[in-house]
Amino acid sequence: MKANDEGIKFGRSLPKYIIKVIYIISPLFITTILGILQGSWFDTEKYIEQGDIEVYTPSITHYVFFVVISILLLSASILGLNYLCNKSNPLWLKFLSLSIFCINVCVIIIMCLLVF
User: 30 and 73 in contact (C-beta within 8 Å)?
Assistant: First the structure.
């Protein structure tokens, strides 16, 4: 019975570690997702090199979709910060979570400034 109890404890604590690891590498996810969207929709040099006579401008739906994705990524980052900054976590993890949140916000702001 003791081995079964340890398995249950390990199974319950595993999602906590997965959430922490995902939150630590979240700036890479955010940069990748917004970079792909920016490069595929808002790269006007690609169309200029192709020799298109008319100037390419992204539609309003592209901008709206980019803003919605940015807001979703920011809200996921806020939820992760809220989850990792509870009272039971050590102080170093709270500091790490807050600094990663600041990095996430800076990445989102920089990517939005590059698009608009």
Answer: yes
Q: What is the pLDDT of residues 34-86, one digit of tens each?
A: 888 887 777 666 666 666 556 667 788 888 999 999 999 999 999 888 888 88
Q: Let me know how many helices (H) and strands (E) the chain has, helices first.
A: 5, 0
- Report pTM: 0.73
* Residue 107 burial (10 A CB sphere; 0-12, 13-18, 19+): buried
C-alpha distances out from residue 116 to 22, 26, 82, Å: 29, 23, 30
* Tokens 């199974």, residue located: 11
Q: How far apart are CA 116 and CA 114, in angstroms?
A: 6
Calculate Rg over the CA atoms of the chain.
20
Give dist(CA 39, CA 10) in Å, integer.
42
Side chain identity, residue 41? W
> Which stretches within 42-90 are classed as H helix?
44-49, 60-84
